[in-house]
Design a protein that fits this description.
With 347 residues, the chain is of the alpha/beta class. The chain has ten helices and 14 strands. A hairpin with a 4-residue loop joins strand 12 and strand 13. Helix 1 crosses helix 8, helix 8 runs antiparallel to helix 9 and helix 9 crosses helix 10.
């Protein structure tokens, strides 16, 4: 996706579609079942990606639907604080309107992190295509959504597929993260649904596990990337993260990105022994970094470097949303590539 081949004259570099949620977490290392207090955060895969790209310096917006109450206002304000446009936030004034909630409990070896969902019948599940202005479909260089949105509800699934088609027709590239969640849908339904949209996808994010289990591919990760591009010639890039979990609080991370043009793979040395404060949203931060690298530079290697750095850094930040701007991520990339010892403190 060389920069001169991408449409530049668009109002937004990236528009996403998905649920913006409320996260409640007990104090670090406390259990959900025992804690008397919870800290609230805004999050959601598509919001996390829009926020990450915006913080790096590009123009983003999210299409979502929130209850018209104090919780919806809290999330809207967090969206604004991330410099993500709220032009396409829709509000549900129904007395039954609710925000999707999930509870997150940090892990400590050998206890794994735990997620409990309470998101059924949230405001976004009643979203209608008639609520979305028709002109939005010509305003984005890239449109992004994920398998979570397809899995959440039949209504969001139908609308997401419709939006993929309309944004594609409007000149946008389509980026899609498989982001499989077993507690939302089964692998067979996921495979059938995702296969139906892959002919429209230009940039695919997929884990090695999903390649093997959901899509039943074999061989090396490189073999599987090439096979996807053979099966779906419209796909220009495929990216897979490679995370090594030493313990809930210690990870290493790198990734592999395949560019069909030139039949080339891009990677770099891992970020080792990441001090994990909160891993939620780190995969979304990776997607944001990759999309930023492609949008800003049209360079797959830059995309890998920004993706890896944003993911590694997000692991060190509590909450779903990323907080690191372009200068911080650029400095982290520079330090990662340096061959000499680095100062222990920014001062």
């Amino acid at each position: 996706m060389e920069q001169n081949k991408m449409e530049q004259n668009k109002e937004f570099d990236l528009i996403t579609f998905g649920e913006a949620m409320l996260r409640l977490s007990p104090p670090v290392n406390e259990l959900i079942s025992k804690s008397d207090s919870f800290k609230k955060h805004a999050g959601g895969a598509e919001l996390n990606v829009a926020s990450g790209v915006s913080l790096l310096g590009l123009r983003t917006a999210i299409i979502t639907r929130l209850p018209e109450n104090q919780l919806g206002t809290f999330i809207k304000n967090r969206i604004r604080a991330s410099s993500v446009s709220d032009d396409y936030i829709l509000f549900d004034s129904s007395p039954h309107a609710r925000v999707g909630i999930y509870y997150y409990e940090n892990g400590a070896y050998p206890r794994k992190p735990t997620v409990v969902y309470d998101r059924r019948d949230s405001a976004i599940t009643r979203i209608s295509s008639s609520e979305i202005p028709d002109d939005v479909y010509t305003k984005a260089r890239i449109f992004y959504t994920s398998g979570i949105t397809l899995a959440l509800h039949e209504n969001t699934r139908k609308l997401a597929i419709e939006m993929i088609r309309k944004f594609k027709a409007g000149g946008a590239k389509i980026a899609f993260d498989v982001n499989y969640r077993a507690n939302l849908w089964d692998e067979e339904t996921a495979r059938t649904t995702i296969t139906s949209i892959l002919p429209f996808v230009d940039i695919l994010f997929i884990s090695e596990e999903s390649c093997r289990r959901m899509f039943q591919k074999t061989g090396t990760l490189q073999d599987m990337h090439r096979e996807f591009c053979k099966d779906f010639p419209n796909i220009s890039y495929i990216a897979s993260s490679m995370r090594e979990v030493i313990s809930p609080k210690l990870h290493s991370f790198t990734s592999l990105l395949y560019a069909k043009d030139g039949d080339r793979f891009y990677t770099e040395k891992p970020y080792r022994d990441i001090d994990v404060v909160d891993r939620i949203g780190s995969g979304d931060a990776y997607c944001a970094g990759v999309l930023f690298g492609l949008l800003k530079y049209g360079d797959p290697q830059k995309a890998v470097e920004f993706g890896n750095a944003t993911c590694a850094t997000k692991n060190t930040i509590f909450g779903d949303l990323p907080l690191s701007d372009f200068n911080e991520i650029s400095s982290i990339i520079e330090g990662h590539h340096a061959g000499s010892a680095q100062s222990e403190m920014n001062r």
